[in-house]
């Protein structure tokens, strides 16, 4: 394949730098570094362009922190100005990285992602009899700089761009000449591109009929167990000899009818359910959010936003009963005839009755015309709301809402 050139000058075009700034600043306007950079945007972008054209860009400035989700990871977040540079480079280089990747590689690609990967894997689980699941041991820490540089040199020919890539690789090491920082935009694309050699090996040399790869999580399928047993040692040898990588010992070869854990869910036939680890994480995070809210560490708006993000992660799986159970056990939502709090409605905000089906009405309440306020129900006049012993008080916003009500409402779930 012909190498790509003429990209370095395109990277430093003013329009591309402005687009890169917009991407880097998205969702980050609350941070002082973003606002400071935007205060003198034209001057900062002009200075960045001049430094980039002569290859004098600063690098290696990271903010390091550790997360435990679900296991310990050290994140290296680049300084804001460097993130702008990374976006500017990938605006021009990403289309070429993408065209070199296998169609069944789903991480960090437009139009792909986790949900598309799960849908594809679910289809293969219903079609084939056997699967082989693999995971790379300490993948980001094991990427070899020399091998990756050779792969990049076979694709790009701009000397300045290749020098830029080499400098960014040299800025971070977990061992001599190895490692990519987790949390960098460039690292995501480098890591995805590095394993494209494995994709080609599985397709062209082993000729296995189906594969799904999400970064370093790989599942391949076949109609025969013998073909997967024969492929496994060849895959191990290829990874060790050509890429300097090793598989984790938890390799699985099993029948698809028994199911497989992949990307946080359990795939079994047409069923997609949260696996054990995801259920534990969801429960722990939900309880942590509730405790943080009642302790005053986060606002009600922040509670709702983070709760929505948690539910969105699980919404695609068959997990509605599990979510409702967690809400009832650990949430502070109202029950019975009491008005529900906003986050009690998270489970029903996307549920609509079919066209033509009547809405649920309160027993004994006269039918209302559209646009008119509801009439008070005689049977419920003067009824007191049931108390909730051993429950935490609802939030002030909902207390005001309850005081303004003249009749109990019906919760439709």
Please describe what this structure looks like.
There is one protein chain. The chain has helices at residues 8-11, 14-25, 32-39, 41-53, 80-100, 114-127, 139-142, 145-153, 159-170, 185-194, 196-205, 225-243, 276-294, 300-315, 320-330, 396-403, and strands spanning 62-68, 72-78, 130-135, 210-214, 217-222, 252-255, 260-262, 265-268, 271-274. The chain is of the alpha+beta class and 413 residues long. The strands form 3 sheets. A 4-stranded antiparallel beta sheet has the order 4-5-3-6, with helices on both faces. Strands 7-8-9 form a 3-stranded antiparallel beta sheet. Strands 1-2 form a two-stranded antiparallel sheet. Helix 8 (145-153) packs antiparallel against helix 9, helix 13 (276-294) runs antiparallel to helix 14 and helix 13 (276-294) runs parallel beside helix 15 (320-330). The termini are far apart. 24% of the residues are buried. The model is unreliable at 333-413 (pLDDT under 50).
């Amino acid at each position: 394949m012909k190498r790509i050139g003429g990209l370095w000058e395109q990277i430093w075009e003013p329009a591309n730098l402005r687009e890169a700034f917009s991407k880097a600043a998205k969702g980050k306007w609350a941070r002082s570094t973003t606002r400071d950079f935007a205060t003198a945007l034209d001057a900062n972008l002009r200075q960045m362009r001049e430094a980039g054209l002569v290859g004098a860009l600063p690098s290696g400035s990271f903010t390091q922190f550790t997360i435990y989700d679900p296991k310990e990871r050290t994140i290296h977040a680049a300084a804001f100005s460097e993130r702008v540079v990374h976006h500017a480079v990938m605006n021009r280089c990403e289309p070429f990285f993408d065209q070199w990747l296998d169609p069944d590689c789903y991480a960090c690609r437009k139009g792909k992602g986790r949900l598309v990967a799960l849908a594809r894997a679910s289809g293969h689980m219903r079609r084939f009899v056997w699967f082989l699941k693999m995971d790379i041991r300490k993948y980001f820490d094991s990427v070899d700089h020399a091998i990756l540089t050779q792969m990049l040199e076979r694709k790009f020919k701009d000397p300045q761009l290749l020098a830029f890539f080499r400098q960014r690789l040299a800025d971070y090491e977990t061992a001599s000449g190895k490692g990519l920082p987790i949390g960098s935009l460039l690292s995501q694309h480098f890591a995805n591109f590095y394993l494209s050699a494995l994709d080609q090996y599985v397709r062209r040399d082993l000729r296995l009929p189906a594969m799904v790869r999400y970064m370093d999580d790989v599942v391949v399928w076949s109609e025969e167990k013998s073909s997967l047993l024969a492929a496994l040692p060849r895959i191990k040898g290829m990874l060790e000899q050509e890429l300097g990588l090793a598989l984790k010992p938890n390799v699985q070869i099993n029948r698809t009818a028994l199911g497989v854990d992949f990307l946080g869910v359990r795939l079994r036939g047409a069923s997609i359910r949260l696996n054990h680890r995801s259920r534990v994480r969801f429960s722990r995070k939900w309880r942590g959010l509730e405790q943080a809210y009642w302790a005053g560490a986060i606002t009600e708006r922040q509670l709702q936003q983070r709760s929505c993000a948690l539910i969105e992660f699980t919404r695609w799986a068959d997990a509605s009963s599990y979510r409702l159970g967690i809400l009832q056990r650990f949430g502070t939502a109202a029950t019975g005839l009491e008005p529900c709090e906003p986050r009690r409605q998270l489970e029903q905000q996307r549920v609509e009755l079919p066209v033509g089906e009547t809405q649920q009405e309160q027993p004994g309440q006269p039918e209302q015309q559209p646009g008119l306020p509801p009439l008070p129900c005689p049977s419920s006049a003067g009824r007191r709301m049931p108390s909730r012993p051993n429950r935490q008080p609802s939030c002030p916003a909902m207390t005001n809402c309850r005081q303004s009500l003249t009749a109990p409402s019906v919760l439709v779930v």
